[in-house]
Amino acid sequence: MSDALAELQRQLADIEREARSTLHSIARESELVPIRAGVLGKKGVLSPLLAALGKLDGSARPAAGALINVTKLALEVLFEEARLRLVQQAIETRVATERVDVTLPGRRSEIGATHPVQQVMDDLVDLLGQFGFDLTDGPEVETEDYNFNLLNMPASHPARDMQDTFYLQNGLVAGLLMRTQTSPVQVRTMLSQKPPVRIIAPGKVFRCDADATHSPVFHQIEGLWIDTDVTMADLKGTLTHFLRTLYGDDRPVRFRPSFFPFTEPSVEVDVWTGTRWMEVLGAGMVHPNVLRNVGYDPEEVQGFAFGLGVDRLAMIRYGITDIRYLWENDARFLRQFVAGGAV
Ligand code: FA5
After folding, report:
1. Are the beta carbons of 116 and 318 closer than 8 angstroms?
2. Which residue ranges have their beta carbon within 6 Å of ligand 1?
3. Exposed/middle/buried for residue 317 (C-beta within 10 Å: 0-12, 13-18, 19+)
4. Is residue 172 classed as helix, strand or coil in its secondary structure?
5. Is residue 256 a contact partner of residue 269, using CB atoms and an 8 Å limit?
C-alpha cells in the first residue's frame, strides 16, 4: 500500500473513531443533525478527502475511493444506529415520566351536597316506604278544586284564610294557585284508583307565611291510607311508631285535638325540642264528604291522612332555631350538614 493510501486509511479511521465517540456522548436526536453535517455533509470532514482523490496517482485512485466509500457507509450505519437508539430512549423516557397511576384517587370538582331538608325528606320517604306506603306526587301548581273544594273547603270556608297563597293568572284555567298543602294529592290519587290506597306524596307547598317557624315555601309529605278497616288507632299507632323511629322512644310527643275540613276527627302532633313544643304534622280520619267527592263509599271504606312538615322535622333533627337559616343559602351554614363532615 502506498504511503498516501496508508495516510488516508489512518485519517478515515480517526474520523470514524471520533464520530463513534461523539455519537455515544449525545442524548437527543436533535443533536444528530449538526454532527452528521460535520461528518457526512458537503462541508463535512469527508469532503476534503474526496476532493484530494483528484491529486492521487491514477493507479491509487480506485483503492482510495473505495476506502472512502466504505468508511462513508460505515458512518451512515453508525448515524442511523445512533438515531434509532435516541428515538427509543426518548420513547422510554416519556413512558416512564408520563405514566398514569391508575391507583390515584380521581380528581373531581366540588359538586355540592344534598340540602339538609332534602336529606331529611329522603330519610322520611325511605322510612315511610318501609311502613308500606307507595311513593307518588302531584303538581305544585294546582286548581282550587283539588287544593280546596274537593277537600271539603268551599270558597267561603274560614279555614282557607290560614292557607293564603300565591294565585296565578292564566287565560285558560280559572283559579290556579301554588298549592298550599300536599293534600290535593289525596284527591288526585283517590280519583284515579280504587281502594285500598296507601301512598305518600312529598313536595313543595306555598303560603303567605314568614317568621322563625314559618317559611313561604316549605315541604310536606302527605300520607293516605284507605281500606275497609283502618281506624283512629291505626293513625295513632302508625304516627307514634314513625316519630319514635325518628327521634327515639324518650322524645316527648303529644297528640292534640285539632280541626281540618277534610278530616274528622283531626289531630295535630307536637314534638318537644328541648325548649318548646314544635308542631310537626296535622292528621285525621278522612272526612266522609271527601270520600264521597272522589266516588268512594264512606260506609264501605275509611282511613286516615297526615301531612308532615318536613322543614320542621329537619329543624328538630339538627337543632335549628330559625327556619329562615335553611333558605338563606349561606354556604357557611349549609356546609355543616354535609354528610361525613364539612367540605
Ligand atoms: C296541613 O297543611 C294539612 N294539609 C295537613 C293534613 C294532612 C291534615 C292530612 C290532615 C290530613 P298544616 O297547615 O297544619 O296542615 O300544616 C302541616 C304541617 O306543615 C304543620 O304541622 C307544620 O309542621 C308545617 N307547616 C305549616 N306551615 C308551615 C310554614 N309556613 N313553614 C314551615 N312549615 C309549615
Report:
1. yes
2. 181, 183, 207, 209, 214-215, 218, 220, 260, 263, 279-284, 305-307, 309, 311-312, 323
3. middle
4. coil
5. yes
| 221 beta partners | 202, 308
Identify residue 227 by its one-letter amino acid code: D
State the Cα–Cα distance between residues 69 and 84, nearest whole angstrom. 23
Q: Which one is the CATH code of 116-342: 3.40.50.300, 3.30.930.10, 3.40.50.2300, 3.40.50.2000? A: 3.30.930.10
C-alpha cell at 162: 290560614
Buried b (16+ CB within 10 A) or exposed e, 126-144: eebeeeebeebebeeebbb
Tens digit of each residue's pLDDT (9 = 90 or more) over 28-45 = 999 999 999 999 999 999
* Radius of gyration for the chain, computed over Cα atoms and rounded to the nearest angstrom: 44
pTM of the model: 0.70
